[in-house]
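So, who can interpret the following?
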Amino acid sequence: MSATPGPWTVGARREILGQAFDQSAKYICDKVRGGSPEAADANARLIAAAPDLLAALKSLADIGERVTADKIQVARAAIAKATATS
């Protein structure tokens, strides 16, 4: 079984949303809780960035493949998505 493909986003109530196969919104996680509101927001962003982080790591993981500026940009974008404040 495979995971719901990205992109995933954070909804207004800290729910994690993905795309169902019919392109409708699909809940990945009902609501991210824990600690302060700021910590819960940071956790939600990290969870939502998981597909992007995985894709970036996969693109950089092949040791025989040359690391290009495009791959570094993908990795930086995934990190920004996981850590950005909104």
In short: The first strand starts at residue 9 and ends at 10. Helices lie at 37-48, 50-61, 69-83. The two ends are 33 Å apart (CA to CA). The chain has two domains: 1-48, 50-81.
